[in-house]
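ok, trying the design again with the full structure, not the truncated one.
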């Protein structure tokens, strides 16, 4: 995983503001990953570019934009 520069982090913050709903597709670098299909809400993007999540299952693992695969949930609540 590479470190992201300030412009990339600001881009992530605009792309995934607090409250954005996300569905996890895969989590690459986590020894105890969440299962594919897990749904959560963005809490914040930190200064390292990690997307901190509040997962519906109660876990609080952050997403790593360069390593994890996920999609934004749009439309009606799922």
């Amino acid at each position: 995983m590479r470190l992201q520069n300030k412009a990339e982090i600001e881009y992530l913050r605009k792309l995934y503001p607090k409250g954005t709903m996300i569905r996890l597709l895969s989590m690459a670098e986590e020894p105890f990953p969440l299962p594919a299909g897990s749904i959560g809400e963005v809490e914040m993007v930190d200064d390292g570019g990690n997307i901190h999540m509040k997962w519906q299952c109660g876990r609080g693992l952050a997403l790593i934009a360069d390593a994890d695969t996920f999609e934004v949930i749009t439309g009606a609540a799922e």
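Keeping the full-length input from now on. Strands lie at 21-26, 39-45, 50-55, 63-64, 69-72.
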